[in-house]
Amino acid sequence: MGTQTTQDSSADVTRRRGYLAAAWLSLVLVPVFFFLGFAAAHLPYLIWPFEEGSGEEPLWFGGITTGIFLIVLAIPLVFAALFGVRAVRAGTAWGWLPTIVAASAGVLVLAVNLIGLVVLLVSGSPLG
């Protein structure tokens, strides 16, 4: 009976470590997805006839490109938070650390983009 309990707890430890490792791996992949997001955000330029960096793009087009970037960047952040919470539910409190880092990074990226939009609108840019 004691052997079965040891095996179960060993499996639980392995599962907790797996969730925690997956959370940290997701955070390590954030820079990769950052550059993939930039690449994906340039794809609408292949569809619409706007020149990149010309300043002639309408505001809605900037919203599309920014939205694509944010969606791609959110992928590893969501997985880091998801696996961090699973690690906590499996029994390790260390799962909160990647969850908090991922949530903070997501809020920071959104805040920077919203501040940029407000500055763009207040400055009277011709993009609007």
Largest pleated sheet:
none
Order of helices and strands: HHHHH
Low-pLDDT regions: none
Helix content: over 70%
Commentary on this structure:
- The structure is a single chain.
- 80% of the residues lie in helices and 0% in strands.
- The chain has one domain (2-122).
- The mean pLDDT is 87.
- It contains five helices and no strands.
- With 128 residues, the chain is mainly α.
In short:
The protein is built from 5 helices and no strands. The chain has 128 residues and is mostly helical.
Looking at this protein, list some descriptive labels.
5 helices, 128 residues, mainly alpha, 0% strand, 80% helix, elongated
SSE inventory with pairings:
Elements: H1 2-28, H2 30-41, H3 44-47, H4 59-90, H5 96-122
